Amino acid sequence: MNSIWTIARKELSDSFRNRWLVAISLVFATLALGIAWFGAAASGQVGYGSTPATIASLASLGIFLIPLIALLLAYDAIVGEEEGGTLLLLMTYPLSKSQLLLGKFLGHGLTLALATLIGFGVAGIAIAVLVDGVAVGALAIAMGRFIGSTILLGWGFIALAYLVSVRVSEKPIAAGMALAIWFFFVLIFDLVLLGALVASEGKLNPELLPWLLMLNPTDIYRLLNIVAFGDSTQLSGVLSLGSDLPIGTGGLWLGLGLWCAIPLTGALLLFRNRKI
Amino acid sequence: MNCFQLENVSHRYDKTTVLRGIDLRLNPGEILGLFGHNGAGKTTSIKLILGLMKPSEGKVTVLGGEAGDPHVSQHIGYLPENVMFYPQLTGREILSHFARLKGAPLSQVPKLLEQVGLGDAMNARTKTYSKGMRQRLGLAQALLGKPRLLMLDEPTVGLDPVATADLYRLLRDLRDEGTGIVLCSHVLPGVEPYIDRAAILTGGSLKAAGDLPSLRRQANMPVTLTVKPAGNILGLEKVIDQAKQSTGLMMKNVHGTLQVDVRTSDKMALIETLLQSGEVADLGIHQPSLEDIYVHFIGSGGLAHRGGSQ
Ligand SMILES: Nc1ncnc2c1ncn2[C@@H]1O[C@H](COP(=O)(O)OP(=O)(O)O)[C@@H](O)[C@H]1O
Ligand SMILES: [Mg+2]
């Protein structure tokens, strides 16, 4: 446990040192406030719209940003140590490969969680203080759910980045593969799903279809932040499939959790079998 | 308890065999020099002792336990060949990180940095360090937690002669406190006085191992006598020519002094003859040095090997 924490605290202090933490927090806070005030501009009004609409816009933006940041933060976790020549040395210490990877996960995970909490937390507080007549209780719950699911989504992509980082032996390759992961889940997946829907002309099993959304953590994340307000008419595009999902928000949380646990377990197993 | 013991160890990377039937052991309070050309298998041997990989055949015991066991690695210090560190961190931050991983007290950190001569540079980022400074930081790292087994892979690369001598003296002090030390190198000059035993590795096989006298016996190389004539050099040459009948030797005249290569077993008899002849003003005896022995064992193939992988 001690060695896991030693690895984690180095990652944490690295992200303080290279200003990652501050930069991400600032980006999150700025975006959140911008969306809160100008998100409704499209419909002709300036100023705070509604809490559900704000959260839905934030989640739509989150699916682009969070996976990208998580992948960038984590893609060189192992391959970077290897290229830097420190992996071999670390492995001669009383430290197992699993402890090293779990320490990295703890460090990267805490970095992302802190930035999310600070960035969106500040934005939430600003909304509560500055917007007249906003229901603070409902805002707190919605923001809490949004921040929690954002952190889980980020952790999932950190774990996905590790799957790459423990396998490849060169950093640029790892970076390329991390971008491909982002591309796939954020841009390609929904298009393919939509295409399949249209092409199948309803021949696909309608009970099976909504479950396909669970194969993409960014879809689970968006569903979670929209469905939780109890108004599934807000779901658009492929997400509308989600209104037929026979699971509640609990199931969606579980889905996001599995998207952390399964890739992380996979990365641990792959790393253990890797030759140093 | 042995610091480590290799019993009939062989190792293959994929299909290439790089170690063949190695038997080698290190006792506490002993410095073992592991010598061989590039690609001889020194680093591979060390990695097996560290437990970074398992030997294809044979048995590796380290500090009475299994190589790679966390309880064993706790007591091993290792300086890798070409050591590298996190460039953005200072020497002190890096050493503290490794101290935490090893469970060594943080109070050791500044002391060790002073000891290796990085006292003034400890708060500079290591990307500003020279190769020699990185090597010193690597050494400080290896000394964390007072290891019982210390393994240094090419530690003198990047060190100037003064720093090299400092390193050897430091190792001798540690040896005297009971640490078992392996010093891996393809650079021999200057190391001879500091090691207790040497092992010579070539092409993955152990050619010889032991202390210097034992290596000399194993090599069975001639001893060189330098003989200065008391009077006429021809008289001396005649004496030696006569001795040649009964003993194998080689003689050459170097600026009026005779150099005689004689088998170790014939050395005493020849000296006696020379002294009794009354033709000798002065006599010097030169035992083969570690470098001579190394060249002897590596043979002419050594050059070809040395041209190989770096
Ligand atoms: N990871 C590896 N995969 C394949 N061959 C290797 C590997 N590491 C070393 N070798 C080969 O094993 C031989 C011994 O290497 P090494 O133990 O590093 O020698 P030394 O340290 O004496 O220079 C060399 O021929 C080298 O090319
Ligand atoms: Mg080597």
Order of H and E elements of chain B:
EEEHEEHEHHHEHEEEHEHEEHEHH
**Cα end-to-end separation of chain B:** 35 Å
Gyration radius of chain B, rounded? 24 Å
Morphology call of chain B:
elongated
How many beta strands in the DSSP annotation of chain B?
A: 14
Radius of gyration of chain A: 20 Å
Order of strands in the sheet with the most strands of chain B?
6-7-8-3-9-10
Note the main attributes of this structure.
heterodimer, A: 276 residues, mainly alpha, B: 310 residues, alpha/beta, six-stranded mixed β-sheet, four-stranded antiparallel β-sheet, 35% helix, 28% strand, disordered C terminus, binds adenosine-5'-diphosphate, binds magnesium ion
Question: How would you characterize this protein structure?
Answer:
- The complex is a heterodimer of chains A (276) and B (310).
- Helix content of chain A is 73%, strand content 0%.
- Chain A is mostly helical and 276 residues long.
- The longest helix of chain A has 34 residues.
- The two termini of chain A are 23 Å apart.
- With 310 residues, chain B is α/β, with parallel strands linked by helices.
- In chain B, the strands form three sheets. Chain B has a six-stranded mixed beta sheet, sandwiched between helices. A four-stranded antiparallel beta sheet of chain B has the order 2-1-4-5, covered by helices on one side. Chain B has a four-stranded antiparallel beta sheet with strand order 12-13-11-14, covered by helices on one side.
- Chains A and B meet through helix 1 and helix 5 of A and helix 2 and helix 3 of B.
- Bound molecules: adenosine-5'-diphosphate and magnesium ion.
- The site of magnesium ion (MG) has 4 residues of chain B, from helix 1.
Strand and helix map with partners:
The complex is a heterodimer of chains A (276) and B (310).
Chain A: H1 2-17, H2 20-38, H3 51-74, H4 79-83, H5 87-91, H6 97-130, H7 136-165, H8 171-200, H9 209-212, H10 217-227, H11 249-272
Helix pairs in contact in A: 1-6, 2-3, 2-6, 3-6, 3-7, 3-8, 3-10, 6-7, 6-11, 7-8, 7-10, 7-11, 10-11
Chain B: E1 4-13, E2 16-26, E3 31-35, H1 42-50, E4 57-62, E5 65-66, H2 70-73, E6 76-79, H3 91-102, H4 108-115, H5 131-143, E7 149-153, H6 161-176, E8 180-185, E9 197-202, E10 205-210, H7 212-219, E11 223-229, H8 233-246, E12 249-254, E13 257-262, H9 267-277, E14 280-286, H10 290-298, H11 301-306
Parallel strand pairs in B: 3-8, 3-9, 6-7, 7-8
Antiparallel strand pairs in B: 1-2, 1-4, 4-5, 9-10, 11-13, 11-14, 12-13
The complex binds adenosine-5'-diphosphate and magnesium ion.
